[in-house]
Fold these 3 entries.
Entry 1:
Amino acid sequence: MLFRSIERHKLLLGQAQARFKQLGLHNVATKLGDGFQGWPEQAPFDRILLACAVERVPQILIEQLKSGGALMAPVGTVPKPDEFLSTESFSQRLTKIIRTDTGVTEEVLIPVLFVPMLSGLP
């Protein structure tokens, strides 16, 4: 099984690649890029995991799932950097989206608090 990871910060990508090598993980492909765009050249995927919060899951990511594939993401209000001290001002829920032949199903799982997903490269 091949795993793929997208990182928008070149330094963090290099650190992740070194860690994968140190751990003997040779089945992880990495890419410097914008997570909001996914990795269409490698699609379709069985699973997609977002490690940052989005207000709405981008349709392009759902379209990169195989039929029967699942996407997990923290979804909801995304705080601005100066709002992290006041957690009452936003709400996020870990959400599971499954793509089917006829559309998508969505299941809200638990409340969570993640940093926001940012578009583009720094």
Entry 2:
Amino acid sequence: MLLPVKHGKIGRYELLHKIAAGGMAEIFLARQWGQGGFFRDVVIKRLFAHYAEHEHALRMFQDEARLLAELSHPNIPQVYDLGYADGVWYLAMEHVSGFTLTDLCRTAAKEQKPMPLAVAIGIVSQLCMALHHAHERSDENGQPLRIVHRDVTPQNILLTNDGIAKLIDFGIART
């Protein structure tokens, strides 16, 4: 369910709809505007304002942005921006149009139709490739980052309408 947004802008991004809220942040569908009518839809993860003063929570939020910036893989959404505007920290990321694996499983259960084996294998295979990329990634000095996601759950797996699985929420990942 998309919820209306109270404050329609953060930095250079127009907030369109609130998608979700978690323990530390709110997630919005937003639009980045540029010159000549250019725009692209993005996802904004906005840290709750009271966490900006909480050193550990702010560091976790910033670490997630830096960690995602190190990763470039078709099964991991790209991060575009980390910023501070209007008194809040935010992270701008690739918008993945689709649904979660949780949604797919609920629909299958409601219709009493099991997920086809080929679909399940395809999703798991793509997730394994994303996790392998994260774990094997090296920094600019060639040192392995050995990123471990630590929260691979159905709600953190987005599925596009084209059948691409994307692993999201590296908020508690460790190197």
Entry 3:
Amino acid sequence: LMILAAIGLLVMHSAVGGTDWRFADQTRNFIVALCAMWVIALTPPPIIMRLAVPFYIVGVLLLLGVFFFGDTSKGATRWLNLGFTRIQPSEMMKIAVPLMLAWYFQKREGPMNTLDFFVAVLLLIAPCLLIIKQPDLGTALLVFGAGFCVIYFAGLSFKLLLPVLIAGVIGLGSIVAYQDDLCDDDFDWVVLHDYQKHRICTLLDPSTDPLGKGFHTIQSTIAVGSGGVYGKGYMNGTQTHLDFIPERTTDFIFAVFSEEFGLYGGITLLLLYLLLLARGLTIAVRAPTHFSRLLAGSITMVLFIYVFVNIGMVTGILPVVGVPLPFLSYGGTALLTIGIACGMLMSISKFRPPVT
């Protein structure tokens, strides 16, 4: 974690071209996240479990507050103004949902029936629908992924997932096969907003709008590729410092890193993430209680989804959905969420229930 944090500040320094207010803010964000991680790490899992229900209820109420009274920025209503500060409640649901579901299955440890899983799905779907309504599909997918991992680890049969996987493969194949018709401006996808439709169509062929919707994907892949094997060197990335990479401090910071540190740097970063994920899964396997195992496994898989989706987005194999890269992307709320998640892993790792 300390190595990833150091790399994050190093890349942020290069992305902003020095020590401006964004670098100072990110340094402050790291300090806040470290303090939160430290406090959570010192909190025993039984206390964390008791906080699951109120934390979830507060999160859902805040999402309802966003729905009725939220602040709108860049066409999305994702923030709630509390007077003294402005928060994004959807971020806290990345922790609140798996925490709530882990508590739910802990209370029903043992053989479970279909009704138990149905209630768990309702607990998962409710906040996801509120987040999608904002609209914020990227965060909704992360929250859904976090909750789904808990449900799957709790014993959901793979046979029930097989039809969904088959339908997904057929759906993706149909989009690729009928791309020209589906991506026509007059074709309505019904279930998706126009900007979400354009993101998928741009992923399939960025060259259709190289200066518009495809600009992000094209410029980020150019930056990643131009880094070569060894990279251009620290602070020497041309795509970065000539302002070709959009959102270079947030969603596309991996392009900045890859351009300056090359293939070897990218592999090193992926290995660090792999070690973090391996450690998280080890903690989950060794956890002493059902609640701890489900929570640790879910948190680890959420970190995996963060890394996979962000790097896939930057390299052009996934649509642009606005998912930050852990420890590298600028942002206080996301970094605080990751810090709390890592603190929970530490708490689970060192906790040993009293012998009775």
